[in-house]
Amino acid sequence: MAAHGRDSALPDDTRNPWTVHAAETRYSNPWITVVHHEVTNPGGGPGIYGVVRYRNHAVGAIPVDADGATWIVGQYRFPLGRYSWEIPEGGAPDGTPPLETAVRELREETGLSAGRWLELMRMDLSNSVTDEEATLYVAWDVVAGDSAPEETERLAVRRLPLGEAVAMAMDGRITDAMSVAGLIKLKLLALEGGLPADLMARVRRGL
Amino acid sequence: MAAHGRDSALPDDTRNPWTVHAAETRYSNPWITVVHHEVTNPGGGPGIYGVVRYRNHAVGAIPVDADGATWIVGQYRFPLGRYSWEIPEGGAPDGTPPLETAVRELREETGLSAGRWLELMRMDLSNSVTDEEATLYVAWDVVAGDSAPEETERLAVRRLPLGEAVAMAMDGRITDAMSVAGLIKLKLLALEGGLPADLMARVRRGL
Questions:
Q1: pLDDT digits over A72-127, tens only?
Q2: Phi and psi dihedrals of A184, rounded to 5?
Q3: Is B143 part of the contact surface with chain A (CB cutoff 8 Å)?
Q4: How far is A133 from chain B (nearest CA, A)?
Q5: Crossing angle of helices A177-192/B177-192, nearest 10°?
Q6: How far apart are the C-alpha atoms of B207 and B203, rounded to whole Å?
């Protein structure tokens, strides 16, 4: 295709440039549906687009206790074929408020209940193929209890200073995108003064 | 399942706790393969696991010029059904070094060539279902040229101060996970002094 750098000087056209001629579900399980589309692409040529639709909205929670410690969860990730340390995460079924699921997942995976919750960020995790969206929270005023992982999970749980978890996200010991983005953003907010005062005090204690 | 919070006190068992009894490809196109597995889950019960395998390794590049400006790319993301502003991104086919693809994608999408490249981070983007991995770079000593997007792309390109792009990642105007994590990490590295001196000078000019 010819170079057309001048396109960038035009007003943004944010309309859908794809035309869908046919859509067919090719795979489905309780977590995902794979829909194959016959399309005309933005250049006007024929094409296909396989989209993976997620039934759940991803949630993650970064708990912070009075000492500035947080908790991370270790598990073997089947799709990657390797072990991964992450913030507590889960999936909110359609129609379930993400915060409600975050509260439940934090309790199931770590045993923690939190009195205060703050939405930290929303992200699209893999938007070239999937529609998966994630909402992350910070949870504080935490109280310990019993954990109760799902049958499909074999989890290790580790309490550590928040600054150590951020270091793991910065140096590649943590690679899960939600965990990396959430931990780094929390530190940057702390440095820039963008957190509620009581949370700020706890976070700074752990950094 | 009964509460078993004491598991977290055991040594980490990082072995694969899943047993696969059968694996079958249920969907395939030039970008993804969907493999359905019959499994025994970590709790010992029967289950299934549908994994989306990506043929490409995701790459992203954050260009920084002598004035501390960067470039972001706008496009309609078919899987999300909406428009998205992102750092320049692409997919490295199996066997292609991710850096080589990042160099090519930056040139195709923005027209920029860069004399210096630094690996910023690696992440797993959606590890509950997919094996998609991403490598992000910072690119500087940039020279402008002609862009040449692929036929399947209709891109808008915007040059802006790096600090403005970071602000978009922090406040939710940018939601793409690679872009959010990369931009925030770059700012945190700049604040903490963790960048090569010539890059640091450019980044600080833009913040």
A1: 999 999 999 999 999 999 999 988 999 999 999 999 999 999 999 999 999 999 99
A2: -70, -40
A3: no
A4: 9
A5: 40
A6: 6
CATH superfamily placement of domain A56-123+133-206: Nucleoside Triphosphate Pyrophosphohydrolase (3.90.79.10)
ipTM of the shown complex:
0.93
Closest CB to A177 among B51, B78, B125: B125
Inter-chain contact B91–A47, Cβ cutoff 8 Å?
no
- pTM for this predicted structure: 0.93
Would you call B46 an interface residue with chain A, using a CB distance cutoff of 8 Å?
no
Domain spans, chain B: 16-54, 56-124+132-206
Contact between A106 and B55 under an 8 Å Cβ cutoff? The reply is no
User: Residue B70: which region, alpha, beta or left (left: phi > 0; alpha: psi -120 to 50)?
Assistant: beta
Running DSSP on this structure, what letter comes out for residue A130?
B
Tell me which CATH homologous superfamily contains domain B56-124+132-206.
Nucleoside Triphosphate Pyrophosphohydrolase (3.90.79.10)
Q: Scan residues 152-171 of A and list those with Cβ closer than 8 Å to B.
A: 152-158, 170
Residue at token pair 């160099």 = B103
Cα separation, A132 vs B4, whole angstroms: 31
Contact B126 A148 (CB under 8 A): no
**pLDDT at residue B2 is higher than 50:** no
Task: Count CB-CB contacts under 10 A for residue B161.
Answer: 15
pLDDT score at B12 = 62
